[in-house]
Amino acid sequence: MPRDLVIPPKSLDEILDWLHPDRDHAGEIYVQLRHDLTKIFTWNRCADPDGLTDEVFDRVSRKVHGVRLTFEGDPKLYFYGVARNLVKESPKRAKRQVSLEDTDLRAPEASTQDEVAHMREECLNRCLQDLDPEKKELILSYYAKDKQAKIDYRSEMARELGITVETLRVRIHRLRGTIETCIERCLDRMGQKR
Known about the structure:
It is a single chain. The chain is mainly α. The protein has two domains: 11-95; 119-187, Arc Repressor Mutant, subunit A, CATH 1.10.10. The chain has eight helices and no strands. The two termini are 31 Å apart.
């Protein structure tokens, strides 16, 4: 599902502040809300529950600055309202989607793919170097292991930090967003240099 990437940079912070003043508790609410929204889309037999959940957060992100000042009651109800609208839009979206089976898509040339991959890796390394050592260690540790070892290690990380695994996920999500923004800016700069 295509997503609109023009989202105010501080919107996640505003959403978390709106959900609860305590950041850790807000993170737990955020994770539970994502889970609940995905279930709503699944129950309504929508094609891409995770993508639609992302779309709910994208839409709320674009409006949270104004909405949180005037909305009364539990903020989760606003998210559920946006989800309800997306459920109604879902059949219309399905009609507009085209099957890729009948489309002749040519992959970019190998050298172009290699060049893009090299540029992304270079930008990732630059962005990681720009992080505080503590944050760099956190993100590298979070993605260090695979399969069951990954799950166990992440639980251990959360215990060492004195937080829940859900709160750790929210921290990583925010940190990853910062890194992705940094990579996009870096790629833009590299594109201008060529």
